[in-house]
Amino acid sequence: MSFFGFGQTAEIDIVLNDAETRKKVEHKTEDGKKDKYFLFYDGETVSGKVNVTLKTPGKRLEHYGIKIEFVGQIELYYDRGNHHEFVSLVKDLARPGELSQSQTFDFEFTHVEKPYESYTGQNVKLRYFLRATISRRLNDISKEMDIVVQTLCTYPEINSSIKMEVGIEDCLHIEFEYNKSKYHLRDVIVGKIYFLLVRIKIKHMEIDIIKRETTGTGPSVYHENDTIAKYEIMDGAPVRGESIPIRLFLAGYEMTPTMRDINKKFSVRYYLNLVLIDEEERRYFKQQEITLWRKGDIVRRSMSQQATIAAQRYEGSNPEPTSAQAKEETD
Amino acid sequence: MAEAIADTRRLYTKPQNLNDAYGPPSNFLEIDVTNPETVGVGRNRFTTYEIKLKTNLPIFKLKESRVRRRYSDFEWLRGELERESKVVVPPLPGKALFRQLPFRGDDGIFDDSFIEERRQGLEQFLNKVAGHPLAQNERCLHMFLQDESVDKNYTPSKIRQA
């Protein structure tokens, strides 16, 4: 109808109530570009306004209902038709009728569950978005607004180190050690490689971080490997008894938390690959999985709070914050 | 109290034994292909090369050895390794059949520059192969490098270290 210049059409605009204060983060889109989106956590309320602006003033807009949805869905690139929605909430904004002028509708999705982190990968995408729709006889008018969700963790209670002896019999024996098995995204991998037997001519050694995205189930499982980082840790030939230190700062690399079997649709796992290269370019390697997790931002506490905590932990210490210091530290 | 800065101190390491640190490395293996010599007369001539090996790897029976081999021996070795081991065997320098055709302006396969080119290729080939942990387990490699002559009727087998 609007095709021929007859009838009325409208523009939809979704605005969040806390748009001024809410943090925005960068997130990669499918074609590799980076855009900024509002950041939400699990359990947070999503509320705002839907502004419907009539294009042609004076004319009425007939509709079969106006609604807003909050959707969390997984999209497999090789199966575009099927979106797997794991969160789907609807709020009706207007019953079927007509709008004689531009109007604004309030909405609130209270304490929405957002179980998984937003992810845009090589073969799969998990996204959350608001979608406002004006239903009409021939064609609906709708507008989507993507948001980004991050899942936070606290320090894992158990975080054992990884220590293993590997090698090729009578040729090369090494013992490698990484200080933890679970690292947060801005952590440092501290480790060492200890040479027990070196009967080959090693030229250099590097440690790679590999991201493996797994999609599909059963017989049609597909792995996509991506080397996120290559970091040389040794140049030259080691001998028996030598220890090579590793210190790899993760903050410099673009990584996501480890995602295991998300909604039974996909996984994203990370591996450390230790690679030794000999004089004839032969490669000897050992892969080891690590778990990555996302840490919440550090909460800054006042000196008096910190002192109180310290007093509780260590017997006999006196919490004596000077009043001047306490004043400076309050945020 | 939340950590503001990660602990990046080195992990504990055992101090290295000074004999290990300053002694000879356990990976010493040197192979030279030298002294090409053409033997025979007329159509029955062929060139042999001296293969000198020095090593401290326990898998080699002799720590020093010296043998003479011809190109067809190298071809035999390559064939055996391809069949018996899972190694991707590097190529040999070319067979140069065209050089064996008559009416050439130079000495064909007995030309000095050709022999030198071939010598280099054979040396590269042997160094690549002899340093491979899997190739080192093959009887044929040890026979080629250290036995007086190559017995092409041998029984292929794997070497296990004592």
UniProtKB/TrEMBL annotation, chain B:
SMART domains: PX (SM00312). Keywords: Acetylation, Cytoplasmic vesicle, Endosome, Isopeptide bond, Lipid-binding, Methylation, Phosphoprotein, Protein transport, Transport, Ubl conjugation. It comes from the Eukaryota. GO terms for molecular function: phosphatidylinositol-3-phosphate binding. Pfam families: PX (PF00787). GO terms for cellular component: early endosome membrane; phagocytic vesicle; retromer complex. The keyword Ubl conjugation applies. Signal peptide: none annotated. Its main location: cytoplasm. It is found in: Cytoplasmic vesicle, Phagosome; Early endosome. Residues 27-151 form the PX domain. The keyword Signal does not apply. GO terms for biological process: endocytic recycling; erythrocyte differentiation; heme biosynthetic process; hemoglobin biosynthetic process; late endosome to Golgi transport; protein transport; regulation of protein metabolic process; regulation of protein transport. PANTHER family: RE52028P, SORTING NEXIN-3. Belongs to the sorting nexin family. This is Sorting nexin-3. The gene is snx3.
